[in-house]
Amino acid sequence: MTSIQANGYPIYFNEKGYEFLNLHLKENKYSNLFIIVDSRTNELCLPQFLGYLETELIIEIIEFDAGEANKNIETCIQIWKVLTELGADRKTLIINLGGGVVTDLGGFVASTFKRGVDFINVPTTLLAMVDASVGGKNGVDLGNLKNQIGVINVPKMVLIDTNYLETLPKNEMRSGLAEMLKHGLIYDKNEWEKFLDLKGLDFADFDGFIYRSVSIKNEIVIQDPTEKNIRKALNFGHTLGHAVESYFLEHENKTTLLHGEAIAAGMILESFISKGKNLITTAEYLQIKSTIKSIFEDIQFEENDLKPIIELLIHDKKNEYGSIQFALLDGIGKIKINQEVDNQLIEKAFEDYKS
Protein backbone atom coordinates (compact mmCIF):
# COMPACT_ATOMS: atom_id res chain seq x y z
CA MET A 1 0.00 0.00 0.00
CA THR A 2 1.27 3.45 -0.87
CA SER A 3 1.74 5.98 1.91
CA ILE A 4 -0.87 8.62 2.65
CA GLN A 5 0.18 12.23 3.12
CA ALA A 6 -1.71 13.67 6.05
CA ASN A 7 -1.73 17.26 7.31
CA GLY A 8 1.97 17.65 8.08
CA TYR A 9 3.02 14.03 8.42
CA PRO A 10 3.03 10.76 6.42
CA ILE A 11 1.11 7.56 7.17
CA TYR A 12 3.04 4.43 6.23
CA PHE A 13 1.81 0.85 6.02
CA ASN A 14 3.21 -2.54 7.00
CA GLU A 15 6.86 -3.55 6.44
CA LYS A 16 7.65 -0.61 4.15
CA GLY A 17 6.83 1.65 7.07
CA TYR A 18 9.72 0.34 9.14
CA GLU A 19 12.14 1.37 6.39
CA PHE A 20 10.90 4.95 6.67
CA LEU A 21 10.94 4.77 10.47
CA ASN A 22 14.59 3.64 10.51
CA LEU A 23 15.47 6.31 7.93
CA HIS A 24 13.83 8.92 10.18
CA LEU A 25 15.88 7.71 13.16
CA LYS A 26 19.05 7.89 11.08
CA GLU A 27 18.43 11.36 9.65
CA ASN A 28 17.38 13.03 12.92
CA LYS A 29 19.90 13.44 15.70
CA TYR A 30 17.75 12.34 18.61
CA SER A 31 19.36 12.12 22.05
CA ASN A 32 17.38 9.07 23.13
CA LEU A 33 14.27 7.07 22.36
CA PHE A 34 11.36 6.26 24.66
CA ILE A 35 8.66 3.76 23.71
CA ILE A 36 5.36 4.12 25.56
CA VAL A 37 3.32 0.92 25.82
CA ASP A 38 0.57 -0.44 28.02
CA SER A 39 0.79 -3.76 29.85
CA ARG A 40 -0.89 -5.53 26.92
CA THR A 41 1.22 -4.18 24.05
CA ASN A 42 4.40 -4.55 26.10
CA GLU A 43 3.80 -8.29 26.10
CA LEU A 44 2.16 -8.87 22.71
CA CYS A 45 3.55 -6.21 20.34
CA LEU A 46 6.81 -4.77 21.64
CA PRO A 47 9.04 -7.79 20.86
CA GLN A 48 7.93 -7.74 17.21
CA PHE A 49 8.36 -3.96 16.99
CA LEU A 50 11.87 -3.97 18.50
CA GLY A 51 12.89 -6.60 15.95
CA TYR A 52 12.37 -4.05 13.17
CA LEU A 53 14.25 -1.17 14.79
CA GLU A 54 17.71 -0.27 13.49
CA THR A 55 19.24 2.32 15.79
CA GLU A 56 22.12 2.87 18.18
CA LEU A 57 20.00 5.15 20.37
CA ILE A 58 19.44 4.21 23.99
CA ILE A 59 15.90 2.81 24.14
CA GLU A 60 13.81 3.07 27.30
CA ILE A 61 10.40 1.39 27.67
CA ILE A 62 7.68 3.11 29.70
CA GLU A 63 4.69 0.90 30.54
CA PHE A 64 1.38 1.75 32.18
CA ASP A 65 -1.62 -0.44 32.99
CA ALA A 66 -3.92 -1.11 30.04
CA GLY A 67 -7.46 0.26 29.97
CA GLU A 68 -9.49 3.45 29.54
CA ALA A 69 -9.55 3.90 33.33
CA ASN A 70 -5.83 4.80 33.15
CA LYS A 71 -6.21 7.42 30.43
CA ASN A 72 -5.90 10.31 32.85
CA ILE A 73 -3.61 13.10 34.01
CA GLU A 74 -2.28 10.97 36.89
CA THR A 75 -0.79 8.50 34.39
CA CYS A 76 0.71 11.43 32.46
CA ILE A 77 2.34 12.78 35.63
CA GLN A 78 3.92 9.40 36.31
CA ILE A 79 5.27 9.23 32.73
CA TRP A 80 6.56 12.83 32.81
CA LYS A 81 8.43 11.97 36.02
CA VAL A 82 9.97 8.85 34.47
CA LEU A 83 11.01 10.82 31.39
CA THR A 84 12.66 13.40 33.63
CA GLU A 85 14.41 10.81 35.81
CA LEU A 86 15.77 9.00 32.75
CA GLY A 87 17.18 12.14 31.15
CA ALA A 88 14.67 12.93 28.42
CA ASP A 89 15.30 16.32 26.81
CA ARG A 90 14.05 18.47 23.92
CA LYS A 91 15.76 16.13 21.43
CA THR A 92 14.02 13.02 22.77
CA LEU A 93 11.78 10.96 20.47
CA ILE A 94 8.72 9.19 21.88
CA ILE A 95 7.11 6.27 20.02
CA ASN A 96 3.58 5.34 21.13
CA LEU A 97 3.01 1.63 20.52
CA GLY A 98 -0.53 0.57 21.32
CA GLY A 99 -4.23 1.18 20.95
CA GLY A 100 -6.13 4.45 21.16
CA VAL A 101 -5.47 4.93 24.87
CA VAL A 102 -1.70 4.70 24.27
CA THR A 103 -1.63 6.93 21.18
CA ASP A 104 -3.99 9.54 22.72
CA LEU A 105 -2.16 9.67 26.04
CA GLY A 106 1.34 9.22 24.62
CA GLY A 107 0.76 11.98 22.08
CA PHE A 108 -0.41 14.29 24.87
CA VAL A 109 2.61 13.42 27.03
CA ALA A 110 4.97 14.16 24.12
CA SER A 111 3.16 17.36 23.10
CA THR A 112 3.45 18.84 26.60
CA PHE A 113 6.79 17.52 27.92
CA LYS A 114 9.31 20.39 27.79
CA ARG A 115 6.73 22.22 25.63
CA GLY A 116 6.77 19.43 23.07
CA VAL A 117 9.04 16.67 21.79
CA ASP A 118 8.76 14.63 18.59
CA PHE A 119 6.54 11.56 18.64
CA ILE A 120 5.49 8.75 16.31
CA ASN A 121 2.32 6.67 16.56
CA VAL A 122 2.37 2.94 15.89
CA PRO A 123 -1.26 1.81 16.41
CA THR A 124 -1.80 -1.84 17.29
CA THR A 125 -5.61 -2.05 17.39
CA LEU A 126 -8.07 -1.65 14.53
CA LEU A 127 -9.69 1.29 16.32
CA ALA A 128 -6.38 3.11 16.66
CA MET A 129 -5.40 2.35 13.06
CA VAL A 130 -8.52 3.82 11.47
CA ASP A 131 -9.26 6.54 14.00
CA ALA A 132 -7.35 7.35 17.17
CA SER A 133 -3.79 7.58 15.83
CA VAL A 134 -4.71 9.67 12.77
CA GLY A 135 -5.68 13.33 12.86
CA GLY A 136 -3.48 14.88 15.53
CA LYS A 137 -5.87 14.70 18.50
CA ASN A 138 -4.07 13.87 21.72
CA GLY A 139 -5.49 13.89 25.21
CA VAL A 140 -6.85 12.26 28.33
CA ASP A 141 -10.14 11.86 30.16
CA LEU A 142 -11.22 14.06 33.06
CA GLY A 143 -12.81 11.65 35.51
CA ASN A 144 -15.40 9.80 33.46
CA LEU A 145 -15.62 12.56 30.82
CA LYS A 146 -13.99 11.46 27.56
CA ASN A 147 -11.07 13.43 26.07
CA GLN A 148 -11.76 16.66 27.98
CA ILE A 149 -8.07 17.59 28.29
CA GLY A 150 -5.85 17.64 25.24
CA VAL A 151 -4.21 19.32 22.28
CA ILE A 152 -4.18 19.02 18.51
CA ASN A 153 -0.59 18.29 17.52
CA VAL A 154 0.60 16.00 14.74
CA PRO A 155 3.16 13.18 15.01
CA LYS A 156 6.24 12.91 12.82
CA MET A 157 4.66 9.86 11.20
CA VAL A 158 2.10 7.11 11.75
CA LEU A 159 3.10 3.53 11.02
CA ILE A 160 0.20 1.11 10.51
CA ASP A 161 1.25 -2.55 10.59
CA THR A 162 -1.84 -4.74 10.30
CA ASN A 163 0.06 -7.78 11.57
CA TYR A 164 -0.54 -6.45 15.09
CA LEU A 165 -4.25 -7.17 14.60
CA GLU A 166 -3.48 -10.85 15.14
CA THR A 167 -3.04 -10.02 18.85
CA LEU A 168 -6.60 -8.69 19.20
CA PRO A 169 -9.61 -10.51 20.64
CA LYS A 170 -12.78 -10.47 18.52
CA ASN A 171 -14.55 -7.82 20.61
CA GLU A 172 -11.70 -5.34 20.01
CA MET A 173 -11.78 -6.02 16.27
CA ARG A 174 -15.51 -5.26 16.34
CA SER A 175 -14.78 -2.09 18.29
CA GLY A 176 -12.61 -0.80 15.46
CA LEU A 177 -15.15 -1.86 12.88
CA ALA A 178 -17.59 0.69 14.34
CA GLU A 179 -15.40 3.58 13.20
CA MET A 180 -15.04 2.04 9.73
CA LEU A 181 -18.82 1.82 9.45
CA LYS A 182 -19.05 5.44 10.55
CA HIS A 183 -16.64 6.59 7.84
CA GLY A 184 -18.85 5.00 5.20
CA LEU A 185 -22.05 6.44 6.68
CA ILE A 186 -20.77 10.02 6.79
CA TYR A 187 -18.66 10.13 3.63
CA ASP A 188 -18.85 7.20 1.23
CA LYS A 189 -22.10 5.34 0.61
CA ASN A 190 -20.35 2.71 -1.52
CA GLU A 191 -17.98 1.95 1.36
CA TRP A 192 -20.92 1.59 3.76
CA GLU A 193 -22.68 -0.81 1.40
CA LYS A 194 -19.65 -3.13 1.40
CA PHE A 195 -20.43 -3.95 5.03
CA LEU A 196 -24.13 -4.74 4.53
CA ASP A 197 -23.37 -8.43 4.03
CA LEU A 198 -20.54 -9.35 6.37
CA LYS A 199 -20.77 -13.02 5.44
CA GLY A 200 -20.03 -12.11 1.84
CA LEU A 201 -17.20 -9.73 2.74
CA ASP A 202 -13.76 -10.73 1.51
CA PHE A 203 -11.62 -10.32 4.63
CA ALA A 204 -8.55 -11.28 2.59
CA ASP A 205 -8.59 -7.65 1.46
CA PHE A 206 -9.12 -6.24 4.94
CA ASP A 207 -5.97 -4.15 4.55
CA GLY A 208 -7.77 -2.42 1.68
CA PHE A 209 -10.75 -1.59 3.91
CA ILE A 210 -8.40 -0.17 6.55
CA TYR A 211 -6.59 1.88 3.90
CA ARG A 212 -9.86 3.36 2.61
CA SER A 213 -11.06 4.14 6.12
CA VAL A 214 -7.82 5.95 6.98
CA SER A 215 -8.07 7.82 3.66
CA ILE A 216 -11.61 9.00 4.45
CA LYS A 217 -10.65 10.33 7.87
CA ASN A 218 -7.56 11.99 6.42
CA GLU A 219 -9.52 13.65 3.60
CA ILE A 220 -11.89 15.17 6.17
CA VAL A 221 -9.15 16.26 8.60
CA ILE A 222 -7.09 17.95 5.85
CA GLN A 223 -10.08 20.18 5.08
CA ASP A 224 -10.48 21.22 8.72
CA PRO A 225 -7.52 20.31 10.98
CA THR A 226 -8.77 22.12 14.10
CA GLU A 227 -12.42 21.01 13.96
CA LYS A 228 -14.07 24.33 13.22
CA ASN A 229 -16.30 22.94 10.47
CA ILE A 230 -16.45 19.70 8.45
CA ARG A 231 -14.21 17.72 10.82
CA LYS A 232 -17.18 17.73 13.21
CA ALA A 233 -18.68 15.15 10.84
CA LEU A 234 -16.34 12.58 12.42
CA ASN A 235 -18.31 12.97 15.65
CA PHE A 236 -21.36 11.23 14.21
CA GLY A 237 -22.41 8.63 16.78
CA HIS A 238 -20.04 10.12 19.35
CA THR A 239 -22.25 12.73 21.01
CA LEU A 240 -24.52 10.09 22.53
CA GLY A 241 -21.89 7.35 22.21
CA HIS A 242 -19.40 9.18 24.43
CA ALA A 243 -22.13 9.98 26.97
CA VAL A 244 -23.07 6.29 27.12
CA GLU A 245 -19.41 5.26 27.35
CA SER A 246 -18.76 7.75 30.17
CA TYR A 247 -21.87 6.71 32.10
CA PHE A 248 -20.98 3.01 31.93
CA LEU A 249 -17.37 3.79 32.89
CA GLU A 250 -18.49 5.70 35.99
CA HIS A 251 -21.02 3.23 37.43
CA GLU A 252 -19.72 0.15 39.22
CA ASN A 253 -22.90 -1.82 38.52
CA LYS A 254 -22.40 -1.36 34.76
CA THR A 255 -20.05 -3.34 32.54
CA THR A 256 -17.44 -1.00 31.04
CA LEU A 257 -17.94 -0.68 27.29
CA LEU A 258 -15.29 -0.69 24.61
CA HIS A 259 -15.24 2.58 22.68
CA GLY A 260 -16.60 1.00 19.50
CA GLU A 261 -19.44 -0.71 21.37
CA ALA A 262 -20.62 2.64 22.71
CA ILE A 263 -20.17 4.35 19.34
CA ALA A 264 -22.16 1.60 17.58
CA ALA A 265 -25.08 2.33 19.89
CA GLY A 266 -24.52 6.05 19.40
CA MET A 267 -24.74 5.67 15.61
CA ILE A 268 -28.08 3.86 15.89
CA LEU A 269 -29.43 6.50 18.28
CA GLU A 270 -28.22 9.40 16.14
CA SER A 271 -29.51 7.74 12.97
CA PHE A 272 -32.95 7.63 14.61
CA ILE A 273 -32.60 11.33 15.41
CA SER A 274 -31.58 11.96 11.78
CA LYS A 275 -34.78 10.18 10.71
CA GLY A 276 -36.78 12.20 13.25
CA LYS A 277 -35.48 15.41 11.64
CA ASN A 278 -36.35 14.06 8.15
CA LEU A 279 -32.70 13.87 7.10
CA ILE A 280 -32.79 10.14 6.26
CA THR A 281 -35.66 7.85 5.29
CA THR A 282 -37.17 5.15 7.48
CA ALA A 283 -35.71 2.54 5.11
CA GLU A 284 -32.22 4.02 5.48
CA TYR A 285 -32.57 4.08 9.25
CA LEU A 286 -33.73 0.47 9.43
CA GLN A 287 -30.83 -0.58 7.21
CA ILE A 288 -28.37 1.16 9.54
CA LYS A 289 -29.99 -0.23 12.68
CA SER A 290 -30.18 -3.82 11.44
CA THR A 291 -26.63 -3.80 10.07
CA ILE A 292 -25.05 -2.45 13.26
CA LYS A 293 -27.16 -4.71 15.50
CA SER A 294 -26.07 -7.73 13.45
CA ILE A 295 -22.48 -6.98 14.52
CA PHE A 296 -22.81 -5.56 18.03
CA GLU A 297 -24.74 -6.90 21.00
CA ASP A 298 -27.43 -4.63 22.41
CA ILE A 299 -26.49 -2.43 25.35
CA GLN A 300 -29.00 -2.83 28.17
CA PHE A 301 -30.41 0.53 29.28
CA GLU A 302 -32.58 0.84 32.37
CA GLU A 303 -35.24 3.53 32.70
CA ASN A 304 -33.18 5.46 35.27
CA ASP A 305 -30.11 5.49 32.99
CA LEU A 306 -31.49 7.96 30.46
CA LYS A 307 -31.59 11.15 32.54
CA PRO A 308 -27.93 11.02 33.68
CA ILE A 309 -26.78 10.02 30.16
CA ILE A 310 -28.59 13.03 28.66
CA GLU A 311 -27.14 15.28 31.37
CA LEU A 312 -23.63 14.20 30.32
CA LEU A 313 -24.25 15.66 26.84
CA ILE A 314 -23.57 19.18 28.09
CA HIS A 315 -19.88 18.23 28.41
CA ASP A 316 -19.57 17.24 24.73
CA LYS A 317 -16.69 19.15 23.14
CA LYS A 318 -18.73 20.26 20.10
CA ASN A 319 -21.13 22.25 22.27
CA GLU A 320 -21.18 26.01 21.87
CA TYR A 321 -22.80 28.63 24.11
CA GLY A 322 -24.40 25.88 26.20
CA SER A 323 -26.15 24.37 23.18
CA ILE A 324 -25.75 20.65 22.41
CA GLN A 325 -24.55 20.21 18.82
CA PHE A 326 -24.99 16.96 16.87
CA ALA A 327 -23.49 15.79 13.60
CA LEU A 328 -26.36 13.99 11.86
CA LEU A 329 -26.71 12.00 8.66
CA ASP A 330 -28.11 13.86 5.65
CA GLY A 331 -28.75 10.70 3.69
CA ILE A 332 -26.24 7.86 3.79
CA GLY A 333 -22.80 9.15 2.81
CA LYS A 334 -23.47 12.78 3.79
CA ILE A 335 -23.59 14.73 7.03
CA LYS A 336 -25.07 17.88 8.56
CA ILE A 337 -23.14 19.46 11.42
CA ASN A 338 -24.22 21.83 14.21
CA GLN A 339 -27.67 20.29 14.58
CA GLU A 340 -29.63 21.03 17.76
CA VAL A 341 -31.83 18.23 19.11
CA ASP A 342 -34.43 18.39 21.86
CA ASN A 343 -34.46 15.89 24.73
CA GLN A 344 -37.80 14.42 23.69
CA LEU A 345 -36.35 13.17 20.40
CA ILE A 346 -33.31 11.80 22.23
CA GLU A 347 -35.58 9.87 24.60
CA LYS A 348 -37.52 8.47 21.64
CA ALA A 349 -34.22 7.31 20.11
CA PHE A 350 -33.43 5.30 23.25
CA GLU A 351 -36.94 3.81 23.28
CA ASP A 352 -36.56 2.71 19.67
CA TYR A 353 -33.05 1.33 20.31
CA LYS A 354 -34.47 -0.98 22.96
CA SER A 355 -37.26 -2.21 20.67
From TrEMBL:
Pfam families: DHQ_synthase, DHQS_C. Keywords: Cobalt, Lyase, Metal-binding, NAD, Nucleotide-binding, Zinc. Its EC number is 4.2.3.4. GO terms for cellular component: cytoplasm. Catalyzes the conversion of 3-deoxy-D-arabino-heptulosonate 7-phosphate (DAHP) to dehydroquinate (DHQ). Residues 63-174 form the 3-dehydroquinate synthase N-terminal domain. It comes from Flavobacterium luteum. The keyword Protein biosynthesis does not apply. One of its GO terms (biological process) is aromatic amino acid family biosynthetic process. SUPFAM superfamilies: Dehydroquinate synthase-like (SSF56796). The keyword Zinc applies. This is 3-dehydroquinate synthase. One of its GO terms (molecular function) is nucleotide binding. Its cofactor is Zn(2+); Co(2+); NAD(+). CDD domains: DHQS (cd08195).
